[in-house]
Amino acid sequence: MTTLITGASTGIGRALADEFAAAGHDLIITARDGAALETVAIDLMSRHGVTVTCIARDLAAIGGGAALAHDIAALGLKVDVLVNNAGFGAAGAFAAGDAAPQLGMIDLNIRALVELTHIYWPGMIAAGRGGVLNVGSTGAFQPGPLMAIYYASKAFVLSFTEALWEEARGTGVKVSCLCPGPVVSEFRRRAGTDKTRLSQAGTPMPAAECARLAYAGWAAGRRVVVPGVRNRVLAALVPFMPRPLLLKTVRGLMAPI
Q1: How remote is the C-alpha of 200 from its chain's centroid?
Q2: Is the pTM of this model over 0.85?
Q3: Residue 29 near residue 40 (C-beta atoms within 8 A)
Q4: Is residue 11 within 8 Å of residue 205, measured between CB atoms?
Q5: Which terminal residue of the chain has fewer beta carbons within 10 Å of its beta carbon, N or C?
């Protein structure tokens, strides 16, 4: 099988590439940083003996997903499994920042994910094999004051993935949404969450452990994968919390240190 992984140069995406390669999947990896992708590819091919193709693309650009699919087709490659990992977040009050980064977040976290899924999904269903692993967040389970667009984008990813899981039931196509809590990666620094109270709320999970649990859950056909007992307990408690208390709690966690 050949697996396409977006945002594969660092963090969870890089760790997921390792897991799929270890399971014998040939890979197509993409991110904006072509040099970083090449470094990842050399490492994976040397350790796992699989074929890794690198394509540098900015999926936040309008039509980025279609352009990537065109590149893949031009190389004569076929995608059996799609891992939608590319995404970014930005901590801060909604009114405090420019609109452009917020809209860019929607373009990458939602539009590109839907675009790529729509391109490859029909072929998976027709073949009765393959699958999709979408990377959400524990932020998907509740609104996120002081990180509103990111939390909302991940809520979309979770809802969309669960709907596809039901549509794929009985077809042989595996669909899962990975909803991790804080993970050791560049995401925390880039998003600014390392400077919020959330960063003091617990120890981030290593990206490799998160990816290991994600792959196992996807391979087992689990609809939603929440790595870590603490994260699963907190996610299970959310529906039972009074909404005003939930919002106040999340706002407190997202407040700057």
Answers
A1: 23
A2: yes
A3: yes
A4: no
A5: C
Decide: 17 and 40 in contact? Cβ < 8 Å. yes
Helices (H) and strands (E) in the chain, counts: 10, 9
Write down the domain spans for the chain.
Answer: 2-254
> Which residues have a Cβ under 8 Å from the Cβ of 82 and sit 6 or more positions away?
3, 4, 116, 117, 120, 130, 131, 132, 133
Assigned CATH class of 2-254: alpha beta
Q: Establish how many alpha carbons lie within 13 A of residue 240's alpha carbon, considering only the half-sphere containing its beta carbon.
A: 5
Do residues 88 and 191 lie in contact, with contact meaning Cβ atoms separated by under 8 Å?
yes
CA angle 173, 177, 182 (to 5 degrees): 155
Residues annotated as catalytic (active site), given as ranges: 150
Residue whose token pair is 């004569």 = 76
The model's pLDDT over 238-253, given as tens digits with 9 standing for 90+, comes to 999 999 999 999 999 9
Outline where 75-140 has alpha helix (H): 99-106, 113-127
